[in-house]
Amino acid sequence: MVNGKLFRCLLAVPLIAAALLAGAPSASAASLTRIPNFGANPSNLQMHLYVPNTVKPRPAVLVAVHYCTGSGPDFYTNTEFARLADRYGFIVIYPSVTRASKCFDVASPQALRHDGGSDPVGIVSMVRYVLQRYNADAGRVYATGHSSGGMMTNVLLGDYPDVFRAGAAFAGVPFGCFATTNGSEWNSQCANGQIIKSPQQWGNLVRGAYPGYTGPKPRMQLWHGTNDDVLRYPNFGEEIKQWTNVAGIGQTPATTDRPQPNWIRTRYTVGGTVQVEGISVQGGPHNVLVNGMAQYAIDFFGLSR
């Protein structure tokens, strides 16, 4: 059930800036296609797929996850990921929520366990469908999203480190921060940035989602606006604590720079590889995903090489 607080916050999440429309695919590009019957789908998600006219041999796969009140086609239209897929030859999956809130489930106990159920299971079914049908590279599967999609990016990497090599979460919260046990989709404490844990506690939440997993840890890129009034800015620091701990590294960045005048980027490395990257957008609102940022995510994944 959607409570009043969630409804107000949904209204506070308009479509991503209209300026992004300039980056949408041209009429001559490949089209977005609805895929039915893609596999296990306990929460009745819809799957939309964008396959460029030219893809690389054994292409990479990107899952691009929409914000609350949105849809896969909305995220396709209002972000640059499909245009970048045309340029670099990867495939993009756009999941869509069908429940009334149009928010992804990042709160239920089922959603926060490997193969536990709900939306993550359906999204991973979409990935497996693409890997099989398009001979895609299982070693190059990535996730990104904004707001509810940024939260789901954290959940997907926590639940399925065996599936996702890296993620880029825009205006999200840490894995497990939104957890509820009463069926609510909304956690006000987390949204307001009031849930503070140690790096070890945050890391334990991720490790507890898939007990016994000993494989490679996914890399994570995190974005947040300092003026986010929906998912407050303290969540950014808590995400950094979590994913650096999962990676087994400390809280001191290896480098700090400013790719743009109002961005502060911190990088945390393992053996010379950037394992966690945080970009703080000074003065940035909740709708932090704007024109040009998607390229940084694609670069972080290594898809532009």
UniProtKB/TrEMBL annotation:
Gene3D superfamilies: alpha/beta hydrolase (3.40.50.1820). GO terms for molecular function: hydrolase activity. This is Esterase. GO terms for cellular component: extracellular region. Pfam families: Esterase_PHB (PF10503). Residues 1-29 form the signal peptide. The lineage of its organism: Bacteria, Bacillati, Actinomycetota, Actinomycetes, Pseudonocardiales. Keywords: Hydrolase, Signal. It comes from Amycolatopsis balhimycina DSM 5908. The keyword Signal applies. InterPro entries: AB_hydrolase_fold, Esterase_phb, Plant_Biomass_Hydrol_Est. The keyword Signal applies.
